[in-house]
Amino acid sequence: MIKHFLSLSDLSKADLRAILDDAHAMKAARLGQPKGALDKDPALSGHTLALIFEKSSTRTRFSFDMGIRQLGGSSITATSSDMQLGRGESAADTVRVLSRFVDGIMLRANSHDTLTELATYSDVPIINGLTDYNHPCQIMADLMTLEERAKATHGKDLSEMTLSWIGDGNNVLVSFVNAAAQLGYALRISSPEGYRVNGQTLEAAKAKGANITADLTPAEAAKGADALITDCWVSMGDTDKEERLAAFPPYQIDQKLLKTAAPDAAFLHCLPAYRGQEMTAEVFEGPQSVVWDEAENRMHAQKAVIKWCFGK
Ligand code: CP
Ligand code: NVA
User: Fold this and answer.
1) I need a surface site. Which of 192, 214, 231, 236 has the fewest CB within 10 A?
2) According to the annotation, is 84 in a ligand binding site?
3) Does 2 fall in a domain?
4) From the CA of 236, how far away is ligand 2's center (Å)?
């Protein structure tokens, strides 16, 4: 059976744990190495992945490309506008062709339906590099970062942590919701009305045993939490920028709110960030911000995701 990486809700606790452990181990093994150096165990030798983008990307693009090189494989990057996909060729036809050329495909898609169509017709593993619905690679990096931070501070396991999402109920939050049951962290959510997380996703996670409290005020969400997490107020593809900029200011994370969290609380943001909107510059640049480690960990976590897809 082909192992696609489409949603964290598809993965078991053991799968998630194995990917995180591998990511930590690979990161540690590369300390001090040039970034282009091959890993000691280049698990992807002889493999080529296609990296396809329907939307802009900095982190996903560079982290996948470098990660694949470190694993001994190679990549081909294309935007959909370079491809017939951008002129109306279906995802189903595209992937039946690409499956003949490459060993795996990472797709960043406008619509989650395009990703599932690709996976349905693919003969090779498909990895989700963000859709309008979720962003599972990001959350693997975020969980890895939370574990690193915990090791350096309070020492808690993920299952003992309280994570607080303050801001838009968007694709990044969906992936935190999707892994909550398996990993056991408590998730608190504070989003303005009209911008709350997908109700079906929330109910499905709760039915699996996730400890999630939604519809909180920012103050309720932040109090004593181990991490405050947010994202931009206007995601790629959102067309209601003015309404959003009017609705979100009470949800800005500032130093006053961060002080109400646990003393060692981490501030996370997937980037790109907009200082003065979802958080103040003081919080973003402050000592509790782990955003650069979080960005670096995209690469380590995705290498482990790729290896998991290939059973390596
Ligand atoms: N966080 C993230 O996915 O960044 P990019 O959009 O730059 O890939
Ligand atoms: N929610 C953001 C994440 C960007 C990495 C977006 O979809 O634009």
Assistant:
1) 236
2) yes
3) no
4) 6
Return the pLDDT at 309: 98
CA–centroid distance, 45 to ligand 2, in Å, is 31
CATH number of 35's domain:
3.40.50.1370
- If asked whether residues 154 and 126 sit together in one domain, one would say no
Enclosing domain of residue 128: 8-134+298-309
Per-residue pLDDT tens digits for 71-113? 999 999 999 999 999 999 999 999 999 999 999 999 999 999 9
Dist CA 105 CA 107 (whole Å): 6
Question: Atom 3 of ligand 1 has which residue's CA nearest to it?
Answer: 60
Residue 302 lies in a domain: yes
Confidence of residue 117 (pLDDT cuts 50, 70, 90): very high
- Report whether residue 128 contacts ligand 1, using a CB cutoff of 6 Å: no
Nearest alpha carbon, ligand 1 atom 2: 59
- In the annotation, is 231 catalytic? yes
Q: What is the total count of domains within the chain?
A: 2
Q: How many Cα atoms sit within 13 Å of 104 on the Cβ side?
A: 30
* 57 annotated to a ligand binding site: yes
Domain co-membership, 167 together with 242:
yes
* Whether 246 and 302 share a structural domain: no
The model's pTM is 0.98
Q: Do 127 and 106 meet the contact criterion of CB atoms below 8 Å apart?
A: yes
Banded model confidence at residue 272, pLDDT cuts 50, 70, 90 = very high
Q: Work out the pLDDT band at 133, boundaries 50, 70, 90.
A: very high
- Predicted confidence at residue 42, as pLDDT, reads 96
Active site residue 108: yes
1 domain-assigned? no
Question: Is the CB of 171 within 6 Å of ligand 1?
Answer: no
Pocket test for ligand 1, best of 127, 270, 274 (most atoms within 8 A of CB): 270
Q: Do 281 and 150 belong together in one domain?
A: yes
